[in-house]
């Protein structure tokens, strides 16, 4: 079984921009997902490649995850005909002390939202905390891409944008 251990943080300021190793535009849409399903099924096109991703529908930093390469043409057709709302973003890769942070700068209805993710080998693994790493949002489902597809950042209330624990 594949397990993903990922922590998410809001990004503060632009100090990270000077450290970007490379960036890629992404489009992703969901073919199925909660509340009825026990998993989300996502199709993603990024950097000339496409993937089908299946992730358990549980909140937190550790979830089951499976990902498979698929033909780009198939992925684009799935996005156009099977997916609901599509999330667009630019993913920036930033190395900090040998740790890869993936910083997602969202577009479209999620413009203005910038989130950093780091994948870890263990839930309690140590990692650097650069000054631009803001509040942790790993347990807040509204920051999950699946939720951003159905309830985008542009429609969030001020309370949702500032709340630390409400979903």
Give the helix/strand layout:
Layout: E1 3-11, E2 20-32, E3 39-46, E4 49-56, E5 62-70, H1 72-81, E6 86-96, E7 99-106, E8 114-119, E9 133-136, H2 145-150, H3 158-162
Antiparallel strand pairs: 1-5, 1-8, 1-9, 2-3, 2-6, 3-4, 4-5, 6-7, 7-8
Question: Which terms summarize this structure?
Answer:
CYTH_domain, mainly beta, globular, 46% strand, 9 strands, 167 residues, Adenylate cyclase, Hypothetical Protein Pfu-838710-001, eight-stranded antiparallel β-barrel
Notes on the structure:
The chain is mainly beta. The relative contact order is 0.23. An 8-stranded antiparallel β-barrel has the order 1-5-4-3-2-6-7-8. It contains 3 helices and 9 strands; from the N terminus they run E-E-E-E-E-H-E-E-E-E-H-H.
Brief characterization of the structure:
By secondary structure, the chain is mainly β. The chain contains three helices and nine strands, in the order βββββαββββαα.
Sum up the overall morphology in one term: globular
User: What is the string of helix and strand elements?
Assistant: EEEEEHEEEEHH
Tell me the number of helical segments per DSSP (H or I, 4 or more residues long).
3
Q: In CATH, what is the homologous superfamily?
A: Hypothetical Protein Pfu-838710-001
Q: What is the CATH topology classification name?
A: Hypothetical Protein Pfu-838710-001
Instruction: Kindly estimate the percentage of residues that lie in beta strands according to DSSP.
Output: over 45%
CATH class: Mainly Beta
Which strand order do you get reading across the main beta sheet? 1-5-4-3-2-6-7-8
Gyration radius (Cα, Å) is 15 Å
Protein name: Adenylate cyclase
InterPro entries: CYTH-like_dom_sf (IPR033469), CYTH_domain (IPR023577), NeuTTM/CthTTM-like (IPR012042)
Pfam family, one: CYTH
Domain CYTH: 2-150
